[in-house]
Design brief:
418 residues; alpha+beta; six-stranded antiparallel β-sheet; five-stranded mixed β-sheet; 7 helices; 43% helix; 21% strand; elongated
């Protein structure tokens, strides 16, 4: 199955596009959260497609490493990384569901991250195919890359690929000088020489002997690492004790500082309250003075308003008068006073339009200011219109002579008369 992939460098997410009809095994998907060496995976839907999104953090694809020449030591170190992670994944029984393409394997400071493919029926080729891909696509240096021969021979001649045996081969190559490391042979045929001796030793026997030597080296290394871990733990505990003491001293200093700050805060609070009391008294006095000034200004404003109203009343007496003409009957209705209320309720309006349920009780007002008249709709149910256009409630509309006014469906014409 060919996989279509993409990488988002900004988010650190590597995605595999799931083609229509591909079936996921969600039970298998959940294991990516429990097994080390697997990139965390989840299913997302974007652009009307399904994706398997793998979080690979700051890892870089193995394919990038294969673009540069690789020396023997670098290859062996890479092989140890891959096989170490491979042993964990092989023991979990999922090695065949791993993608063996270098684009889907990521290297980071945390180690190797493999992309596990939880698709029903998917087989990724396993670790044999992975190392075959590395040899086919990589560029290698050192003694004309002759040191790769044992690896190529193992991959070609061993029908059953063992991650553990392959790791042992790499370990042996790393521990011995060039030319002296183990070269796997084809399986023994059991032929003997003319003198009766066996010509070849089987690969299995030869490899078991060398694996035992490697295991002994591993035990020595484990002991060394255990001693280093013990010393590191002692250093960690001593560092924790030092930090604990520093933290205790810092806590005591913090509490002393809190006491000092609390005392300063108390004194500052007392000073603040005294200042607030002084300002409150000044504010009270200022408020009394302000109120006295407001009373004086209000009295002056009242007198000025009375004078203004008297002057307006005088002007109204000489201004043009406005009328409404009821189009249905031709009735001429004078608009007298500063406000003329219009509606169907007799006891609350100045002009009553009776017998029409479409007219509201207090439908509208006509305001008179100086030489102008203004129409205001008072939130009527069936609206007010000027020249066929609905006016907004509570908004003053200046009237012009011959304007056609509709209170609901009752039509009047506004006119000026000298």
């Amino acid at each position: 199955m060919e996989l279509q992939c993409r990488m988002n460098r900004e988010t650190g997410v590597f995605s595999i596009i799931l083609q229509p009809g591909v079936m996921l095994d969600f039970q298998k998907l959940s294991i990516t959260e429990r097994i080390p060496g697997l990139a965390p995976c989840r299913v997302e839907i974007r652009e009307e497609l399904r994706f398997l999104d793998y979080y690979v953090a700051q890892g870089r694809p193995l394919s990038e490493l294969l673009r540069r020449p690789m020396a023997r030591e670098a290859f062996l170190a890479l092989g140890q990384q891959l096989t170490t992670a491979g042993l964990v994944l092989e023991s979990a029984g999922i090695s065949q569901e791993l993608s063996a393409e270098p684009e889907t394997i990521f290297l980071s400071e945390r180690g190797v991250l493999f992309c596990y493919i939880p698709i029903e029926g998917y087989k990724g080729g396993g670790f044999r195919r992975l190392f075959q891909q590395i040899l086919a696509r990589g560029s290698f240096s050192g003694v004309e890359s002759g040191w790769l021969q044992p690896i190529r021979q193992y991959l070609q001649t061993h029908t059953v690929f063992s991650v553990k045996e392959f790791q042992g081969l790499l370990q042996t190559m790393g521990n011995r000088t060039a030319g002296g490391y183990y070269v796997p042979q084809a399986a023994s045929t059991g032929q003997t020489s003319a003198k009766g001796g066996t010509v070849l030793i089987s690969d299995a026997v030869q490899f078991r002997n060398q694996a035992a030597a490697v295991a002994a080296d591993f035990k020595i290394e484990e002991a060394r690492q255990a001693e280093e871990a013990r010393k590191a733990e002692e250093a960690r505990q001593a560092e924790e004790a030092r930090k604990t003491e520093e933290a205790r001293q810092a806590e005591e200093a913090r509490k002393a500082e809190e006491v000092r700050q609390a005392e300063e805060a108390r004194k500052a609070e007392e000073a603040r309250r005294a200042e607030e009391a002084r300002k409150a008294e000044e504010a009270r006095q200022a408020e009394e003075a302000r109120k006295a000034e407001e009373v004086r200004q209000a009295e002056e404003a009242r007198k000025a308003e009375e004078a203004r109203q008297a002057e307006e009343a005088r002007k109204v007496a000489v201004q043009k008068k406005g009328f409404l003409i009821y189009s249905q009957t031709g009735e001429k209705i004078p608009l007298e006073g500063p406000v003329v209320r219009i509606g169907k309720r007799k006891d609350s309006v100045d002009y009553c339009i009776s017998g029409n349920p479409a007219v509201s009780r207090h439908h509208a007002d006509i305001l008179h200011r100086e030489d102008a008249y203004f129409l205001v709709d008072r939130n009527s149910l069936n609206k007010t219109y000027v020249n066929g256009k609905e006016i907004e409630p509570q908004k003053e509309i200046r009237l012009s002579s011959q304007d056609r006014i509709s209170f609901a469906d009752e039509i009047f014409v506004f006119v000026f008369e000298d």
